């Protein structure tokens, strides 16, 4: 089959895991493809994805072949597929805007961004000339202006859009209307992990609801050592992230919790954790006879590979939408893979909807 041609904004840990995965699964089949939620989507396997354009602002990545850039500092995720062949695609200088938080220049170069002294590229021209069909947004949390800029670039270039971070584009009616009018499909917002803090919290909250347990209060505290957690030390950049993660849990509860009784969000930056993320989760409630109970859970995951399995499904479903002439919000795959989709569904229902979409039994 023809390749699914993608462009990527931000060659950080998440992009590294995605690109490693494209090559890692090339020589595998459905029997030994560990870590994938769907091996085949509409005839497309993971190795049918090809990166044809990439944008970053770090001097250690700009100008380098994508195969080298994904392993450059400050990337720190697990390298599970080190032998990436040269792609022939060099990383182009992106537009900075609010993509780099001011406090990050106070940290050692190995842990933070080093902005390249290069002129900004003509993003739309590169997207058009590359033949990219889908633009993947991996900008840092809090990059409101930069995310809106690149969303407009996707519209101007006439390509589909997968928004993997928590600036609300696909779930924003005004932006969604723009993609609908342009005849372009879009998936978003804010990628889930396969087995991460949010999906685990949602699953336990669903268990409480279905087993008749009244949830009274809960928290989810997360620590990590990648650039995402360093970036999020600036609390001013966290509003959309907290809203995204909190709403993902609230949406599956039998009864919404008052704000003081639910706390979900990044908690601290621990450099030596690198791309490992620790989640500390507590849920307190009452069972039969109003008898109190609680659950405490500690989850440890490699953050970026955990999200790549969801993005690789979002990309392939986006390709099916392009082939079928579907535009605007892709409801099913957004609900399945994103924390803040246009419409929330319980995870079991979202999974069912995605399979129906893949089979052509559901339009979106």
Summarize the biggest pleated sheet.
7 strands, parallel
Silhouette: globular
| Counted beta strands | 11
Helix content: 25-40%
H/E element sequence: EHEHEHEHEHEHEHHEEEHEHH
Structure classification: alpha/beta
Largest sheet, spatial ordering of strands: 3-2-1-4-5-6-11
Rounded to an integer in angstroms, the radius of gyration calculated over CA atoms is 20 Å
Give the overall average pLDDT.
Answer: 96
Strand content: 15-25%
Poorly predicted parts:
none
What is the count of DSSP helices, taking H or I runs of 4+ residues?
Answer: 11
Question: How many angstroms separate the termini?
Answer: 23 Å
Can you walk me through this structure?
The protein has 364 residues and is α/β, with parallel strands linked by helices. The protein has eleven helices and eleven strands. Helix 4 links the parallel strand 4 and strand 5. The chain is globular, with a radius of gyration of 20 Å.
Topology:
Blueprint: E1 4-9, H1 13-24, E2 49-56, H2 66-69, E3 92-93, H3 123-130, E4 134-137, H4 144-157, E5 160-163, H5 173-182, E6 185-187, H6 197-210, E7 214-224, H7 227-231, H8 239-250, E8 262-269, E9 276-287, E10 291-302, H9 303-324, E11 328-329, H10 331-337, H11 347-358
Parallel strand pairs: 1-2, 1-4, 2-3, 4-5, 5-6, 6-11, 7-8
Antiparallel strand pairs: 7-9, 9-10
